[in-house]
Amino acid sequence: MDSLTSVAARNQSSMILYTTGLVALSLSYALYRLLALPSHLRHLPSVPIWPIVLSYARQEPDDVRIKRLLLPYANKHSEGVVLVWVFGQWMVHILDPQLAFQVNANLRDFPKYFPPWDLLLLRFTGRKNIVTTNGDEWRKISTLIHDAFTIPVPVDVFTSLAKKLFHVIEQTTSTSGDDHKVNWADLAQRYALDAIGYSVAGYNIDAISTESQLANDYNTFMRHTADPLYLALPILEKIIPRKHVFDLMNNIKDKLADMLLAKRLDPGQDIMSFMLRDPTLTKDELRDNISTLFIAGHDTTAGALSMLIYYLAVDQISQKSAREEVIRVLGPSADPSLPLLSANALPYVSACIKEALRNNTPVSYAVPRISGKAVNLGKYYIPSGTAVITNIYGVHHNESVWKDASVFRPERFLTGEDTNQVKHSWIPFNGGPRRCPAQNFAQYELRTLASMLLREYEWTLPEDSIHANGIKNAFSPFALTVPHDLDIIFRKRT
Ligand code: HEM
User: Fold this and answer.
1) Same domain, 13 and 141
2) Is any atom of ligand 1 closer than 6 Å to the C-beta of 304?
3) Are residues 227 and 259 in the same domain?
4) ipTM of the complex
5) C-alpha span between 211 and 216 (Å, rounded)
C-alpha cells in the first residue's frame, strides 16, 4: 500500500514538473516571438532591443528615447533608417528627410497601418475617419476635409478666445507685484479645445473660463485611453470592459451627435456645417470624422502653444524681437486681421513658431505605414508587410540636416542657414497627401495667440520650474511630445 502511495506521489510530482516545464517553455517561446528580430528583417540596422524595452518600461517620453538611443545609433552607423522594437513589434523608423518623403508621397506602396481596433481611442474615432482609412474611402473624406479647411481661418474666434485667456491670467493670484504664475500647459489645452469647439462644430465648450463638463469628460476619457494595461492588452476591453469609461465615451459621442443635429438645422461657418453640405457622407462617416478632428487638433495644437511660449520665456531676446515685430505690424491694441497675421506679414514670429514646431515637434512619429509590396528605400530593401514610421522628431534632430539641432534659433528659418539645402526636412505636419489638412489653420491659431500675448504681456519661466534645464515632456503612448506642469509667469506690459 505504502509503495502504491509513493508511486502515485512520484507520478504527481513528475506531472507538476512536466506541466511547469511546458508552461515555462511556452512562455519563453512567446517572449522569444515577442522580442526576436524576424529573419526577413535581419539585414536592416537594428537598435539594441533591451535599452528600448527598458525605456518603454520606464515610460521615457519619445524625445528622450529618440535622442538617447535612436539618433546616436543611426549616427554611429551612418544610417537614415533603423529598425526599432515598438510595443511588441519591429518597425522601420526613418530619420532621413528624403526617405521619409519617398514613403509619405507613395500611398499605393505604403498605405496606413493600424493597431488593434479594440483600442479605446480607435473605438471613439470609429473606422470611417480620415486618419484610419485608406484608398477611395480615405480620398473621399480627405478631399472634403481639405476643402473645409479652405474656408477663411476664424481669426476673430482666436482673438476673442485670447481675450478670455487674458482674463484668466489676470484672475490668477499674483506671485509678486504684477506677476501672475499660470499653469500654461493647462491653459493652452483649454484654449486649443475651445478653438476646436468653435471652428469644427461652431460650439462653445467654454473650457477657458469654466470647469466645462464636456471638457472634463473629454480630458478624463483621454486619460483612460492611455491606460498602460489596456494599451498592452487591448483585448481586455472585451474581457474586462470598463463600463464607466464607455459611459463617458458615449456621453461625449452623444454630445457630438447633438452638435451635428444642431448644425443640420442651423448651419454656420464651421467645418461640420461644411461637411454636412455633402449628401453622400454617411452618418458614420460624419460622426467618426468629427470625433477624429477633435482628437487630431487638440493636444497637437496645445503642445505647440505650450512650446512656443516656453521657448520665448527661455530666450528673452527672441521674445523681444517678436514683440517689436508684432507692435510694428499690428499696432499697439487694435484686433488683428487675417492679412496682418499671415506668415509674410510676421516673418519673425513665424520663424519662432516654425522653430518651436521643429525643436519639440508635437507629433513625434507619424502614424505607421505598411509596405504593400517589397520596395527599396534608398539602399535598404524593405520586405512586403513591414511597418514603416516617419520619425518626425528624429528628422528634426538629424544633425546632418540641422546644425545644433537642440538649440532654439528662429533665425535659421530667416537666413536659410540650414533649411533650404535639404528639402522636406521641416515636417511637423508631415508631408505628402496625408499631411495635416489643418497646417495653415493651426499656424494662424498660433500666430494670433502669440501676437496677442506678446502685445499684452512679458513672460518668464519660474526659477524653480522643472523645465529650467530643458523641457520635460510627458510620456505619451500616442506619439505626442507635449510638456507637463509647465508654469509661466506673465507680467502685464505697461
Ligand atoms: C500644431 C498643430 C498640429 C500639428 C503639429 C499636427 C500634426 C499632424 C501630423 C504630423 C499629421 C500627419 C500624421 C501622419 O502622417 O500620420 C497630421 C494629420 C492630421 N491632422 Fe494635424 N496637426 C495639428 C493640428 C491639427 C488640427 C487643428 C486639426 C483639425 C482641427 C488637425 C487634423 C488632422 C487630420 C484630420 C489629420 C489626418 C490626415 C490624413 O490622414 O489624411 N491637425 N497632423
Assistant:
1) no
2) yes
3) yes
4) 0.99
5) 7
